């Protein structure tokens, strides 16, 4: 039973000073915190129930169910079950249009923002609000485990997440009712979980290879005197274990002359074969062959693959990650000889071929993979949360921005103001001027990326500096300053130095939510909270009633010849009454009917129990007390 702390004097609920560490993953998500009594980070939940699948099922009543219960609908209701939503965070429809067929649900553009939208049962959802549902379920899990309301959290993201994706993650946290104290890079969190750098006398340089379900990044970290300094980072936010699954599906399609497009067109069939591929991937981590059968388009196929064929299929995907590793080493100005340790993070690093490939690249006899790769990021996030809560003052994290930030100049050129791999928090600025006589305003368009032309980079937003005094071209002096906070989120200040005209703006990515949209959604959640709770309570009561009905039917079937006609009749009537009430929404009536059914069945249940005990003791000799 959860214990909630209440201030007796004024009746208010006491808010916790605990800060959660959350790993919002592509495939699975976890929540952790640091136990103050031991100083150890732990993932919350019962053994076997710590991992929450990042899956959301939308019921016919448009209720959202998260986790294991949602995962069970993946095959039969593929259109209504969302998975790998992290791959869509902060992305435009154009970004993922080429991959949309690989999702079992219907993805569509949002005409107003070009943001990805998901259409389920005729209702439109976006990745931010769906991710918020996962975060909310983790928040509830933590509150039940710790017995108090919690509102603060640290959330991890891939190091290579851009500004739009980071802002979308923060928006999702806000929508879930969380005050997100920090967005932390997953590799940094992982190194904390391994305890690397906790000894202030330790000086080391490590590589963190993080291959999850949908994202990959490599980070080179220098750690000395308790200071974690990111030297470089590289990666791909659209490469991960999901791609291993697709490689296996492609192999099976070639093996049986199946048409991939035809498979993708039938969402349920594609989902079933995708889950088989995921099963094969996991099986081949510890076995040499995998074989199973599946019914597709009225034919039964034997799906088989050996480890050698699997490794050949995923070789191009793994090579993409190794290329990122080489780039990260180059950016840091290091070679493999400068790396003392390689830390493996993410469920996909369980694949032996991945481990061997990384060992070869860094020329190491072993890699550091002793912790559960599914839990390591959440544990590290909890340690960072503990630092932010003020419980540890001996550690400092210095992250970097993964991509350059700049503005558009004449000719569509990208002028970089904060180069990639700059330490954060940071700020930098440059001076500009006007290009026309008498120019009164200046449009400032902000981009992120490494290309020379802005057309090849990602636009984060734009604003207009108005009120520039009319002067000849080239005379105004406009200082544009970029300020990047510890979360990697950007604010901009533009000042015309001669007149003092100033404008400050926090860049709102065009694929994120505005504060007003978040506020509207939060208000909607608050105003519907009571109705939502009633729906939940009714669903829980009906589930309990269905369990009672199942046990009663089982009892009647197994002991039909031992019951009187009157007992059969009264039990049958009670069952019918409860079945009928379960079709409605009167929770109290269902509870009363359950109690009546229990009362009717209790006498013969007790009689059957006595008979069973008597039979068990027949011929036994009882020792005197």
Structure description:
With about 625 residues, this protein is an alpha+beta fold. The chain folds into 4 domains: about 20-240 and about 315-400, Nucleotidyltransferase, domain 5 (2-Layer Sandwich); about 240-315, Alpha-Beta Complex (Actin, Chain A, domain 4); about 400-510, Sandwich (Substrate Binding Domain Of DNAk, Chain A, domain 1), CATH 2.60.34.10; about 530-615, Substrate Binding Domain Of Dnak, Chain:A, Domain 2, CATH 1.20.1270. The chain has 15 helices and 28 strands. The strands form 7 sheets. Strands 1, 2, 3, 4, 11 and 12 form a 6-stranded mixed beta sheet that branches. Strand 26 and strand 27 (about 490-495) form a beta hairpin. The longest helix has about 30 residues, at about 585-615. It is globular, with a radius of gyration of 29 Å.
Under CATH, the topology of the largest domain can be stated as Nucleotidyltransferase, domain 5
Specify the number of helices.
15
Mean pLDDT: 83
CATH architecture of the largest domain: 2-Layer Sandwich
Low-pLDDT runs of 5+ residues are: 1-15
Strand tally is 28
Instruction: Kindly estimate the percentage of residues that lie in beta strands according to DSSP.
Output: 25-35%
Distance between the termini: 38 Å
Please give the CATH class of the largest domain: Alpha Beta
Structural class: alpha+beta
Shape: globular
**What is the CA-based Rg, rounded?**
29 Å
Helical content band: 25-40%
Q: Major sheet: size, sense and barrel closure?
A: 6 strands, mixed
- Tally of discrete structural domains: 4
- CATH evolutionary superfamily of the largest domain: ATPase, nucleotide binding domain
């Amino acid at each position: 039973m959860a214990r909630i702390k209440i201030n007796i004097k004024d009746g208010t609920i006491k808010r916790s000073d605990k800060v959660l560490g959350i790993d919002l993953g592509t495939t699975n998500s976890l929540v952790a915190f640091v136990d103050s009594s031991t100083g150890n980070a732990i993932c919350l939940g019962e053994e076997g129930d710590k991992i929450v699948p990042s899956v959301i099922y939308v019921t016919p009543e448009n209720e959202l169910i998260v986790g294991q219960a949602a995962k069970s609908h993946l095959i039969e209701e593929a259109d209504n079950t969302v998975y790998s939503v992290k791959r869509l965070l902060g992305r435009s429809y154009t970004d993922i249009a080429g991959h949309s067929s690989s999702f079992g649900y219907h993805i569509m553009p949002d005409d107003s923002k070009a943001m990805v939208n998901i259409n389920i049962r005729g209702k439109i959802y976006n990745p931010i609000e769906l991710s918020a549902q996962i975060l909310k379920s983790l928040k509830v899990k933590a509150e039940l485990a710790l017995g108090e309301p919690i509102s603060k959290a640290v959330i991890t993201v891939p190091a290579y997440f851009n500004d739009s994706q980071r802002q979308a993650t923060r928006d999702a946290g806000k929508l879930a009712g969380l005050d997100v104290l920090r967005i932390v890079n997953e590799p940094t969190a992982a190194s904390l979980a391994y305890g690397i750098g906790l000894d202030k006398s330790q000086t080391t340089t490590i590589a963190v290879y993080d291959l999850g379900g949908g994202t990959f990044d490599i980070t080179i970290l220098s750690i000395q005197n308790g200071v974690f300094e990111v030297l470089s980072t590289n990666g791909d936010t659209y490469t991960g274990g999901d791609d291993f699954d697709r490689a296996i599906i492609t192999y099976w399609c070639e093996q049986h002359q199946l048409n991939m497009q035809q498979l993708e067109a039938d969402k349920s069939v594609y989902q079933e074969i995708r889950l088989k591929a995921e099963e094969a991937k996991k099986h081949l981590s510890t076995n040499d062959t995998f074989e199973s059968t599946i019914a597709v388009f009225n034919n039964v196929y034997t799906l088989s693959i050996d480890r050698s064929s699997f490794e050949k299929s995923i070789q191009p995907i793994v090579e993409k990650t190794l290329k990122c590793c080489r780039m990260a080493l180059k950016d840091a100005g290091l070679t493999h000889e400068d790396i003392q340790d390689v830390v493996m993070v993410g469920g996909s690093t369980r694949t032996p071929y991945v481990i061997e490939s990384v060992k070869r690249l860094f020329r190491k006899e072993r890699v550091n993979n002793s912790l559960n790769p599914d839990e390591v990021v959440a544990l590290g996030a909890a340690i960072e949360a503990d630092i932010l809560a003020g419980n540890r003052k001996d550690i400092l994290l210095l992250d970097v921005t993964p991509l350059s930030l700049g503005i558009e100049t004449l000719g569509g050129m990208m002028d970089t103001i904060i180069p990639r791999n700059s330490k954060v928090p940071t700020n930098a600025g440059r001076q500009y001027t006007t290009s026309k006589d008498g120019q009164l305003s200046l449009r400032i368009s902000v981009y992120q990326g490494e290309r020379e032309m802005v057309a090849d980079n990602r636009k984060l937003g734009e604003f207009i500096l108005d009120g520039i005094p009319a002067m000849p071209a080239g005379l105004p002096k406009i200082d544009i300053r970029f300020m990047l906070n510890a979360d990697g989120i950007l604010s901009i200040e533009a000042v015309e130095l001669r007149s003092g005209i100033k404008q400050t703006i926090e860049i709102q990515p065009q694929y994120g939510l505005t504060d007003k949209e978040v506020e509207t959604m939060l208000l909607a959640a608050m105003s519907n909270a009571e109705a939502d709770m009633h729906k939940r309570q009714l669903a829980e009561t009906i589930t309990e009633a269905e369990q009672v009905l199942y046990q009663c039917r089982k009892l009647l079937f197994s002991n039909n010849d031992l019951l009187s006609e009157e007992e059969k009749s009264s039990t049958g009537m009670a069952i019918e009454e409860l079945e009928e009430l379960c079709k409605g929404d009167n929770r109290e009536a269902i509870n009363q009917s359950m109690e009546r059914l229990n009362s009717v069945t209790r006498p013969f249940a007790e009689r059957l129990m006595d008979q069973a005990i008597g039979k068990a003791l027949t011929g036994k000799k009882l020792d005197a007390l």
